[in-house]
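Tutorial, part two.
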Amino acid sequence: MDDLTIKKNVEEELQYEPILNAAAIGVAVKDGIVTLTGKVSNLAQKYAAARATTRVSGVRAVANEIEVALLPSDIRTDEDVARSAVNALTWITSIPADSVNAQVSDGWLTLEGTVEWYYQKDAAERAVRYLRGVKGVINKIVVTPPESPPVSPDVVKRQIGEALRRSAELDAQRITVETRGSIVILRGTVRSWVERQEAERAAWSAPGVTAVENYITIMV
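Running the prediction step on this input gives:
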């Protein structure tokens, strides 16, 4: 699919997002890589624009350069945002108490700490990304699993295959899995960004994984 067609389809997809003003978002495409620019009034809209873009066929990657320009009514002090973040994290039962710290500077919230599973790192970010006054989230949480046997490529490959067969029509044979200690490396091709993300999610679910390097490409 050519870049002009992808650009047109992305612009149309953005128009279908009810929380977005598509006219305020710029779309540029080169070799299937989409760059989003413009301004939105909250972080939820920035994420919504990226999600809508990844749904479009032919999109190989998204560079989300949209700026969050908070409305005057949404601007809060860093202290208020930090307090809200701490409260939000407290309510997430999947995150061990006191394992994650939050720091705020000019509306940008940085998460630090150590957890045993990637889903806990992801849950922490999801808990704070839509708080009023947050312009962006930097997730520096480190995944340090408990002592466990070395990561098995066969286990990860099986989990990826099972997850992808449940989610869509994907030939898991096109994905190769390598390991380097506790790091999983994914290579191969898939038909959509959603399938690429699903492969990475499945890799993170394997016991002992501390990092996933995803080199899977989108077929065009």
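The chain has a mean pLDDT of 88. In part three we will examine how such features are distributed along the chain.
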